[in-house]
Write a structure and sequence with these properties.
The structure holds two protein chains of two kinds.
Chain A lengths: L1 H19 L47 H15 L3 H10 L4 H15 L30 H29 L4 H4 L18 H16 L4 H17 L5 H23 L10 H15 L44 H15 L3 H9 L8 H16 L4 H29 L4 H4 L18 H16 L4 H17 L5 H23 L5
Chain B lengths: L1 H17 L18 E13 L2 E3 L2 E3 L7 E13 L4 E6 L2 E6 L8 E3 L1 E15 L2 E14 L18 E12 L3 E12 L1 E3 L5 E2 L3 E2 L3 E3 L3 E12 L4 E12 L18 E11 L6 E15 L5 E12 L2
Antiparallel strand pairs in B: 1-4, 1-20, 2-3, 4-5, 4-6, 5-8, 6-7, 8-9, 9-10, 10-11, 11-16, 12-15, 13-14, 16-17, 17-18, 18-19, 19-20
The chains are: A mainly alpha, B mainly beta.
């Protein structure tokens, strides 16, 4: 029996040792708070994207730091800090001094959570998510790549404009942060000379919460909780007094109303069409080219994904036809045959590296989509380059508007040419990845990725080569996955790069050096 | 006349007790092999389902249709000593679906090595109480991807199992057996570094939930201990994990649960060396995040003795 007891202890020890060598599975990006490489004192003069004249957004003149009102606020801040709970301390560390990162991560998490394609009903029909009845079933939204690209564009643009306005008033009023006014207050983050009024943290929080609630109405309560936690952390970290925060919120409110106005009229509400409209689009292509894409699921989905996303208003490209790709090779042509044979070769003889690339970039259902993948790259570059929140928001804003523009351009091309998927055109062909519910040409992954790489290469030129390699890999991953022909990927990459240059050209002239 | 029958029966029993009966075995049964005995088994298993549990909701999916899984498993058992046996196995698995456009997977799955120890045999009433343990370790071989569910051929994680096996073997051939195991599972490496499990996870490792595994059987040894017949019950319950999301594919982090009932029969040779055969059938009766599978298996065994 003693032998038995000993061996049990031995096994428990082995299990414990094994558990301790497991890899971490973190839920957010952990980074050390950093000193901003630059404060961008002139940031208030940069070109905004939604706001036409920032002088129209007014905030109250702040009380001086030696006023009784301000001193009372300071006292309340000190009391609040002295009563901080362990959870509140953790919140201060979590939100960090660049909270654009955290709100971006929350947006990606929402995207993954809602990126589930509605299944069929018992009678073989499909019900689409309905914003008028968000609970569903199915719940609203289905955060597919076009939806997510647009969600991220509005989020980042609202953050960026709110921060430009915030910066404008910060350096107009120059009211210092509580930790600079009162030695008894510690800054939880590296100190700097950034004026505290209006609070940029509060502007980010308010703009982000409102845009994400618009995009994910069922998450309103969760987002409200995050928002409150974030605002509290601004006080607890010694960055702001309540009046700083109120001013930041009031700026964000103005920006959010502009963003909502644009979003309500940008054409997204019409992107998912009726079957009649969808059929007429398919038939137009059939008459022009002699082919049309059809959904290959069982039961068949009557309408592809957002046939009119190509009509949605773009951010930087005046007319989507400027960036429409040239016609794909005709089905049965020599080029088509050779690219189809390439797919069959990969399918019957896939290397470990090809498989890894296909999976690494899958970013399919239940994930943050390719736009999300590029937001993760942007986040890592932002931290690596120690960007302040305004600079970070600028990167996200130009990248995400370029990504959405790339999506619009790609969808215009997809439904104009209505090109069949490999599983339709190659008899008996099976794939390692699921075939999406929209035409093949051009590849969305390729287009999204090339546009993002173009913008990130402008902001982080020392890593331009890496971004280009990633964009190429994202494009080719779809060929390995069996769901795109090489010409879908090649032309998609060209298209994305072209769309990206429109955003870069705007960024070059926005006044930021 | 009656007396003659009685004598013949007695003689048979005495004779039997001197002739070794070669016995193949599994990690969860009560069977032990004497020192120096080696048994090779080749098993084929076919399993299919056309319904699966998405969380606790039993559904069909026309893009899968009927899902088929085939396994060929070579297995080797040996008697290190009378009280300690080793069992090792390495299955080859292939999967395919009758519907949809996605390709099935195939390859070598996990190499498993287990040690069975006979701790106790105690005479109680008209039978013997048995207690054994089985400790096993398994890990994936090759480079199969666990993240291709439902097509993937395994969960892709190392596993350590601690199993206690208790039984009561009656002199009349009836056997009652229950085995309970704790299966500790480690992580599986996937080919992406972000996934959703009740929230964002920024990692290329998934935690595969540990599980409780129960086997129960009522068996009967017939034809002079050469034929074993069993009615079986098996359950596996992950202790943690998430559910498959609506109309989404499964993933290795899921809280998988299954219980099944079945029958098992095995024919043992009555010699030091030679072939035996086995066959079994299992029907899944309840589950969670698993297919409602019907399974049958066939196997042949070859047994011999060294030194």
């Amino acid at each position: 029996m003693k032998k038995y007891t000993n061996s049990s202890w031995g096994l428990i020890l082995v299990l414990w040792l094994l558990s301790s060598c497991l890899e971490d599975t973190p839920n957010f990006y952990e980074f050390e708070d950093y000193t901003f490489n630059n404060l961008d004192e002139d940031g208030g003069s940069w070109q905004t994207i939604l706001v036409s004249n920032l002088e129209n957004i007014n905030i109250a003149t702040p009380e001086a730091t030696n006023s009784a009102a301000y001193q009372a606020e300071l006292a309340s801040v000190k009391e609040s800090i002295s009563k901080m709970s362990a959870a509140e301390r953790q919140a201060v560390r979590y939100w960090s001094n660049n909270p654009t990162i955290r709100w971006n991560e929350i947006a990606l998490e929402m995207a993954a959570k809602y990126n589930l394609i509605p299944g069929p009903n018992a009678d073989g029909t499909y019900t689409l998510p309905n914003p008028a009845n968000p609970l569903g079933p199915p719940p609203f939204p289905f955060a597919h790549p076009p939806y997510t690209s647009r969600m991220l564009a509005y989020l980042s643009v609202a953050q960026f404009d709110a921060l430009v306005v915030t910066w404008h008033y910060k350096f107009q009023y120059n009211r210092e942060a509580p930790y600079r006014v009162d030695n008894a207050i510690q800054s939880a983050y590296p100190q700097n000379q950034l004026p505290a009024y209006p609070s940029h943290g509060a502007a980010i929080a308010k703009a982000s919460k409102e845009i994400l609630t618009l995009m994910f109405p069922l998450e309103a309560a969760f987002l409200e909780e995050k928002y409150k936690e974030h605002l509290k952390s601004l006080v607890h970290s010694g960055q702001n007094v309540p009046s700083d925060i109120e001013a930041g919120i009031s700026i964000a409110e103005e920006i959010v109303s502009l963003a909502k106005q644009r979003a309500s009229t940008d054409g997204m509400a019409q992107a998912q069409t009726s079957k009649a409209v969808s059929d007429s689009i398919a038939n137009a292509a059939y008459e022009r080219f002699g082919w049309k894409w059809e959904n290959t699921e069982t039961p068949q989905r009557p309408v592809g994904l957002t046939p009119l996303f190509g009509n949605v208003r773009m951010w930087h490209v005046p007319n989507v036809e400027e960036v429409r790709s040239p016609p794909p090779p005709a089905i049965g042509s020599a080029q088509f045959q050779s690219d189809a044979q390439e797919l069959q070769r990969y399918a019957s003889n896939m290397t470990v590296t090809q498989r890894r690339i296909a999976n690494w970039w899958e970013d399919g259902l239940n994930s943050y989509t390719p736009p999300g993948h590029w937001n993760k790259f942007a986040k890592i570059s932002i931290v690596k380059n120690k960007l302040n929140p305004l600079r970070a928001a600028r990167v996200f804003a130009y990248m995400n508007t370029a990504i959405m523009d790339a999506g619009v351009a790609c969808w215009d091309t997809k439904y104009y040419y209505h090109y069949p998927r490999p599983v339709e055109s190659i008899p008996g062909f099976k794939t390692i990845l699921g075939t999406p519910n929209f035409p093949a040409y051009t590849s969305g992954h390729s287009t999204f990725s090339a546009s993002a790489a173009e913008v990130l290469s402008y902001f982080f030129p020392e890593d331009a080569n890496q971004f280009e390699v990633w964009a190429e890999e994202a494009a080719v991953s779809r060929i390995y996955g069996g769901i795109h022909y090489r010409f879908d990927a090649t032309e998609g990459t060209k298209q994305g790069k072209l769309v990206g240059t429109y955003a870069v050209n705007k960024a070059k002239m926005d006044g930021a050096m | 006349m009656k007396k003659i029958y009685w004598t013949v029966a007695m003689l048979t029993m005495v004779y039997m007790s001197y002739v070794p009966i070669a016995k193949g075995q599994l990690p969860f049964d009560e069977i032990m092999m004497p020192k120096g005995e080696i048994c090779f088994a080749g098993m084929y298993e076919h399993s299919s389902w056309s319904q699966y549990w998405e969380g606790t909701y039993l559904r069909e999916n026309a893009n899968i249709g009927t899902f088929n899984r085939q396994m060929f498993m070579p297995m080797l058992a040996m008697g290190l000593t009378k009280k300690i046996n080793l069992i090792t196995s390495l299955p080859y698995i292939s999967t395919e679906a009758s519907g949809g456009t996605q390709v099935g997977q195939s390859g070598l799955q996990d190499l498993s090595i287990s040690m069975k120890v006979d701790w106790l045999q105690h005479r109680v009433g008209s039978g013997r109480i048995l207690f054994l343990t089985n400790t096993h370790f398994s890990r994936p071989v090759g480079n199969y991807l666990s993240d291709y569910m439902p097509f993937s051929i395994g969960v892709g994680a190392p596993e350590i199992g601690l199993r206690g096996i208790g039984g009561y073997k009656m002199d009349n051939g009836l056997v009652f057996r229950i085995a309970a195991a704790y299966l500790w599972r480690g992580q599986t490496e996937i080919e992406r570094n972000y996934y959703y499990q009740d929230g964002s996870v920024y990692s290329s490792f998934m935690n595969v939930p540990s599980a409780l595994n129960i086997h129960g059987a009522i068996g009967y040894w017939a034809f002079e201990n050469r034929l074993r017949l069993e009615a079986t019950y098996m359950s596996l319950n992950c202790l943690t994990g998430d559910d498959i999301r609506a109309y989404n594919r499964p993933q290795p982090t899921n809280k998988m649960e299954v219980s099944q009932i079945g029958v098992w029969t095995q024919y043992y040779i009555k010699a030091d060396q030679g072939f035996g055969a086995l066959a079994y059938f299992n029907q899944t009766i309840s589950g969670r995040n698993m297919g409602k599978a019907t399974t049958f298996g066939l196997g042949i065994t070859y047994q011999f003795k060294v030194n």
